[in-house]
Each structure stands twice: as C-alpha cells, then as structure tokens.
Write a structure and sequence with these properties.
35% helix; F-box domain-containing protein; 2 domains; 8 helices; alpha/beta; five-stranded parallel sheet
C-alpha cells in the first residue's frame, strides 16, 4: 500500500490535523482520529515497523526489488529507511541475487546483527552455481554478525557449494542453523560444518537430509551436548 503525501484515509474519523513532530508521544492519539493524517506525521516507530513488515511480505525471489518496494511505500521516508540499519537485517539470497545487491544491503545494515536465508529450489545452471559461491564469499567476512542461517537447497551440488563456503567463515554469534532439501524424497548427505567455534549455537535442524556421523559429532561438540 502506498500513501501519497496528502492522501486521506476514509476509514478514520475527522479531527484537527496534528502538526507536532512525528517522534512526539502526544502524536499517537491523533493517529487513530485524524482522517487527514499523512505518513510523514506518524510516529517514527509505527512507520518503520510498517515498512519492515511490508518488506518481509514482499521478499523471497523478488529480493533484488526490495529497495524499490521500500521507496514505493512513500517517497518521503526513503532517507529514513536507508538510514535505519534494522530495516536491512534480514538477508534473503537465491542463486541469482546480484552480488551488488548483497553488498548494498550489507552496507545499509551497518553494524547490526542479521539473519540469513538462502533459498535455491528452482532449476539452475553453472552460472547460478558460480554466483551463489560468489555471494557466500562476499558474506563470509560478515559472518560474525550472523545470528541465524537457514538453507533451503535443491540438491547435494548446491549443498556442497554452500557448505564449502560456510566452512571458510567464522560464525561466532550464530544461534540457529537449519538445512532443508526441497524434495521429501531426497536423501543427500550433509558435510560437516565449520571447524571454527560456534559458542552461541543453540538450535540445529536437518530436513530431508542425512547428516554424516562426522557432522553429528561436530554439531554435538558445538552445542556442548553431554
């Protein structure tokens, strides 16, 4: 939904227009009563929450269009979203996500922790495999800020590519790791994870894949199980 700068909301009753700062607590009651309220006069927390939800709904394979989606909500808030790192801390990748887009998102996320979802379920070729490896290589230096890593992969070829790159990185703050194959009939084997310590890891999930014994022992060590 896009709001024009002076578009009225017919669902709200009429009330005097509030002229106070968007961050002012006293502007909250007016939000519910002003049929002439405009998005640039809403409290900052409400608008940023709304825009984040909009982005999450529109993400997935349209990941490269996220910036356009954000800006289409309201041009007046472009600078606000671009300057709010928490609007960029959910990173969705597929085999065809441009490397330049990932670099731009990492730059916008600044120093905040982020959550990574890699979704590669559709047909791919050699160029897609190379691009995926390049994306993960770009992500590797930032692995220390990754809190969750979820992989939804088509087959063992992609799995080997992903795991080979992951083993090169240090996920010192990773709390959750999940691997799923797209087909319930696939029974591939998952290589062992990074040899680097994972002191924050608390949750591991495998779906439609058989971890090797080495993998299980390694994750048991990372999870500090008895």
């Amino acid at each position: 939904m896009a709001f024009e700068p002076d578009q009225a909301n017919p669902a709200l009753p009429s009330a005097p227009l509030n002229t106070e700062s968007p961050a002012s607590p006293s502007s909250f009651p007016v939000v519910a009563t002003d049929r002439r309220a405009v998005i640039n006069r809403l409290p900052f927390e409400i608008v940023t929450g709304f825009l984040r939800a909009t982005v999450l709904l529109g993400r997935g394979r349209t990941f490269h269009k996220d910036r356009h989606l954000l800006r289409s909500v309201c041009r007046l808030w472009t600078a606000v979203i671009d300057s709010d790192p928490h609007s960029w801390n959910h990173i969705f990748l597929d085999c065809r996500t441009p490397v330049s887009v990932l670099l731009s998102v990492l730059e916008s996320a600044k120093s905040v922790d982020f959550f990574v979802f890699v979704d590669c379920q559709f047909p791919f070729d050699g160029r897609d495999q190379s691009n995926l490896a390049a994306l993960l290589a770009v992500l590797a230096p930032y692995a220390g800020r990754c809190r969750t890593l979820e992989l939804n992969l088509e087959n063992d070829v992609l799995c080997r590519i992903v795991m080979a790159e992951i083993r090169k990185a240090t996920f010192s703050r990773l709390t959750s790791f999940k691997v799923a194959m797209s087909s319930p009939y696939y029974r591939g084997r998952l290589p062992e994870p990074s040899e680097a310590p994972l002191p924050k890891l608390r949750h591991v999930s495998f779906e439609y894949t058989f971890p090797t014994w080495t993998t299980l022992v390694s994750f048991r060590h990372h999870l500090k199980l008895p």
